[in-house]
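Structure first, sequence second, as always.
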């Protein structure tokens, strides 16, 4: 499955955490980690699982592109650079145990919980918080729960909500321009401390069709992970449609006719992304973070 290059590059790395969709390795400099995007897909709190060739490469590419664009409009993110087709270098943060969901159109658990019809346009974007704990099934919580249990303080909450709105505004424009409806998405944020102990709040984790709902604007065809959750069609086909409309993959797509990843084409994606990243203003990684930054 993985190429020699990937085996070699991962072999000398210390694995810090393995999640359902990604592996976190120690990075080359203090204060950095490497995110490796796996081909594993899970749904319904990992009750449904599969391995889908090409998913990791597409998510890595889509996420690094969106994070780069968000940096460009002044939203601080953990993304530093793309390393290869499955890996990216990011700033290491203390992840805040919240899943911040922004909804524009009703779908998924909102419909189940409140009996709203799927596809209903919400009168304004709805921001929800879930407590990030797989054992508890990531329960819906209110801001008061967050403050009561000290998962984030009022200042951080203000920043988080304001960033979530700005990400939503930007992504609504980005996707509507390529004929997609941004139904909803999930964000994670993390804390990083600077040299003088100043606190930075960064957008972390990934922004990809694994955690965004994206529908074709004309047909309402679902192009995101709901294809896997509800067996609606080939997952990679949907992700490729999104990536190619964003101009991130060649027209022929990433997959060969035999359903395998075209490694040669996939390897070129890194160069395209890094060219884009180079155009951004350089920001140094803090070399002396406090050791309290744990994964
Ligand atoms: N910059 C970062 N520094 C440290 N950890 C990060 C960073 N970005 C994301 N993470 C964390 O790394 C993990 C990524 O793995 P993955 O998305 O596969 O996890 P998961 O199976 O969804 O589990 P979890 O419930 O922990 O999110 C997540 O726990 C995520 O919060
Ligand atoms: Mg995750």
């Amino acid at each position: 499955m993985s190429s020699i290059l990937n085996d070699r590059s991962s072999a000398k790395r210390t694995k810090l955490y393995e999640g359902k969709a990604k592996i976190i390795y120690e990075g080359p400099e203090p204060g950095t980690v490497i995110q490796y995007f796996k081909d594993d897909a899970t749904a319904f709190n990992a009750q449904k699982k599969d391995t889908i060739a090409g998913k990791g490469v597409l998510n890595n590419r889509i996420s690094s592109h969106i994070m780069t664009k968000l940096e460009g409009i002044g939203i601080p993110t953990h993304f530093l650079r793309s390393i290869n087709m499955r890996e990216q270098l990011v700033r290491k943060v203390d992840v805040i145990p919240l899943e911040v969901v922004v909804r524009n159109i009703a779908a998924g658990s909102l419909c189940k919980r409140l009996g709203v019809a799927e596809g209903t346009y919400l009168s304004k974007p709805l921001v929800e918080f879930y407590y990030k704990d797989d054992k508890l099934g990531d329960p819906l919580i209110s801001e008061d729960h967050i403050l009561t249990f000290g998962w984030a303080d009022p200042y951080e909450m203000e920043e988080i909500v304001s960033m979530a709105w700005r990400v939503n505004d930007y992504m609504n424009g980005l996707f509507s321009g390529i004929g997609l409806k941004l139904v909803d998405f999930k964000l994670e944020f993390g804390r990083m401390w600077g040299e003088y102990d100043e606190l930075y709040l960064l957008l972390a984790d990934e922004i990809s069709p694994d955690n965004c709902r994206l529908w074709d604007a004309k047909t309402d065809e679902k192009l995101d992970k709901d294809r896997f959750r509800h067996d609606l069609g080939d997952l990679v086909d949907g992700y490729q449609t999104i990536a190619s409309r964003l101009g991130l993959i060649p027209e022929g797509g990433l997959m060969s006719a035999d359903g395998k990843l075209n490694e040669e084409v996939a390897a070129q994606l890194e160069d395209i992304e890094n060219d884009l990243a180079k155009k951004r203003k350089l920001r140094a990684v803090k070399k002396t973070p406090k050791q309290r930054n744990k994964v």
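Margin note: The helical segments are 4-11, 55-72, 109-114, 143-148, 154-176, 226-229, 235-245, 263-278.
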